[in-house]
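Dear H.,

Thanks for agreeing to be a second pair of eyes. The structure we're designing against is below in token form, covering all 381 positions.
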């Protein structure tokens, strides 16, 4: 549970910005494109600082890195809560991305150290549920802001307080020296196999398509004519659905250990997510938008744990390199998706933006199946 909670707390600085944007605009000028810049900057910094996180976790206990990162994220939330101008808001998101990137490797290593490998699927599913958990918490704050005048600043301050509580409660966890296990980031650079390159491209495309759901769902529904309270409430419900889906998928991956089955399942989930985003692009009535949202979140956001687990299982000669390669790809996708979506929505329409995201998820589905084919034939670069 600790890795999942920390992952949620380090993601929430930027995850909260999209759902709560309509309330932030009462105090700070914030366009749709600005939200895309904030998300993309966050995940660019995450990708750049992931290697630094690998360096840290080799030299310090994984839990110590996670606790320090949680405190830093709490500080970022405090800054966001007091920000009065857009540059400070965006700068805080940059710092939050650095923290997120530096902490993520320690969470992955912590899972492999304290969880039996037969339960890795569930553990990675819980960790993967951190993103929708952060989104759901943010959406709940947005609903409170829309319906009862709850301040968006208070939400960030509460997140900061939660981070301090988690750090205090986790004292003594894994307090020993850094692990010398073989899953540590190796100094020898191993060239990724062709199958991993294809899988990494699929992860990048899948993340490009699905990463736009949290920052833009509320604004997209409002653009379709839905009131802010209903849009925020639907995002909150969808976030909990995504949490459940990622955990169920994790349990499935433990019960069905064949990694090729995992990749086929990920392809089906991405296909479902693509269909859901087509519904968001074309739906004009609330029932259609409701079903499209639930499908997009419940299926299109459930695949990451499966893919990361499969990358570890299918590339045992270099597990640390495999998970690092996949993590970089998904971070880059989370950079490109919101940035491109925000630009298209601001200068074109939400319909076109959702359609492009659906196409990206569909392409990711094809790459997952291509990876299965590559692994079945045993080809390597």
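And this is the sequence the design step returned. I haven't edited it by hand at all.
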């Amino acid at each position: 549970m600790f890795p999942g909670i920390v992952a949620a707390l380090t993601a929430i600085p930027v995850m909260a910005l999209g759902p709560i944007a309509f309330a932030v605009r009462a105090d700070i000028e914030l366009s749709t494109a600005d939200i895309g810049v904030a998300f993309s900057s966050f995940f660019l910094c995450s990708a750049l600082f992931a290697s630094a996180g690998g360096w840290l976790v080799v030299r310090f206990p994984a839990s110590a890195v996670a606790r320090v990162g949680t405190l830093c994220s709490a500080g970022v939330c405090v800054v966001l809560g007091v920000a009065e101008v857009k540059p400070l808001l965006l700068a805080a998101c940059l710092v939050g991305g650095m923290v997120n990137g530096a902490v993520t490797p320690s969470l992955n290593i912590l899972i492999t150290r304290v969880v039996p490998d037969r339960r890795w699927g569930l553990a990675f599913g819980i960790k993967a549920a951190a993103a929708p958990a952060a989104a759901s918490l943010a959406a709940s704050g947005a609903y409170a802001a829309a319906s009862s005048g709850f301040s968006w600043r208070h939400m960030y301050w509460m997140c900061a307080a939660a981070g301090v509580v988690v750090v205090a409660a986790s004292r003594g966890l894994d307090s020993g020296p850094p692990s010398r296990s073989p899953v540590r980031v190796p100094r020898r650079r191993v060239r990724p196999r062709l199958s991993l390159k294809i899988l990494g491209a699929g992860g990048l495309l899948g993340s490009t398509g699905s990463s736009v759901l949290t920052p833009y769902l509320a604004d997209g529904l409002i653009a379709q004519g839905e009131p802010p309270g209903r849009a925020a409430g639907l995002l909150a419900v969808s976030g909990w659905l995504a949490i459940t889906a990622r955990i169920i998928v994790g349990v499935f991956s433990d019960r069905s250990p064949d990694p090729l089955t995992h990749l086929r399942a990920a392809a089906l989930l991405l296909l479902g997510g693509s269909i859901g985003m087509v519904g968001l692009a074309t739906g004009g009535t609330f029932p259609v938008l409701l079903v499209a949202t639930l499908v997009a979140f419940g299926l299109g956001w459930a695949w990451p744990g499966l893919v990361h687990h499969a990358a570890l299982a299918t590339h045992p000669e270099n597990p640390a390199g495999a998970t690092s390669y996949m993590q970089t790809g998904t971070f880059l996708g989370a950079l490109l998706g919101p940035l491109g979506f925000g630009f298209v929505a601001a200068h074109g329409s939400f319909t076109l933006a959702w359609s492009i995201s659906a196409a990206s998820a569909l392409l990711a589905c094809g790459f997952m199946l291509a990876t299965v084919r590559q692994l079945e034939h045993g080809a390597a670069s």
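Two observations from my side: Residues 2-170+192-377 form a domain with the Growth Hormone; Chain: A; fold (CATH 1.20.1250.20). The two ends are 38 Å apart (CA to CA).

Warmly,
E.
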